Amino acid sequence: MQPAPMTPNIPGPKATPRTAAVSPEETASLRQIVVAVVACVLGERRDHPDVEDCTHEALSRALEGKSRLRDGEPLRPWVIGIARHVALDALRSRKRTRRVEARMESASASEDTTTAWLDLVPDPSPGPEERTASAERATRLERALGTLPEEQRRALVMFHVEGLGYQDICKRLGVPLGTVATWLARGRRLLAETVGE
Q1: Domain containing 57: what range?
Q2: Average pLDDT score, the chain
Q3: How far apart are CA 104 and CA 90, in angstroms?
Q4: Which of 68, 102, 136 is the C-terminal boundary of a domain?
Q5: Does the residue 138 lie in any domain?
Q6: What percent of the chain has pLDDT over 70?
Q7: In this structure, what are the phi and psi dihedrals at residue 174, rounded to the nearest 5 degrees?
Q8: Which of 85, 127, 143, 148 falls between 20 and 30 A from 24, CA-CA?
Q9: Which residues have CB under 8 Å from 91's CB, separation 6+?
Q10: How many domains does the chain have?
Q11: pLDDT classification of 78: cutoffs 50, 70, 90
Q12: Residues 29, 95 share a domain
């Protein structure tokens, strides 16, 4: 009888704060904080339906997007920021709804007003703040791409812009698969550090 082959003791990936599952106790604690933040921003009681809706939305976004946290970044402040943004979005939506309702009431009150219904619908396109932020991100990204070594930049563009897979990039650049993987990982890390500043 032959002895069973020995397998090396290779440790598995360690759970970091950003990849570890959120415990039910931590979720309950976060929920209380999110409810308080949302209620404060909306100016409503904690048991108001809008507070409950925003709380659910904020927690869903936070827990689903938890993998985007950087290593070592604490979860609680990130969740609070998401809760604040969700509540502010709800406030903006309320204001738009009130403006539309006010226009509709004034239009129906005066018979000689020929306001088109289409004029009463809010514009869904991004506002000036969102367009400015998007343009600034694009500028930072372009500058950051310019600082990368040529091979990392080419690999990133082929993967993210042209949609090529690792194997196709290997063939096109004439390098091994591991090299492409390394270039992409390093390039992404450098871009995240530069654009995230």
Answers
A1: 24-102
A2: 78
A3: 21
A4: 102
A5: yes
A6: 78
A7: 70, 40
A8: 85
A9: 41, 42
A10: 2
A11: confident
A12: yes
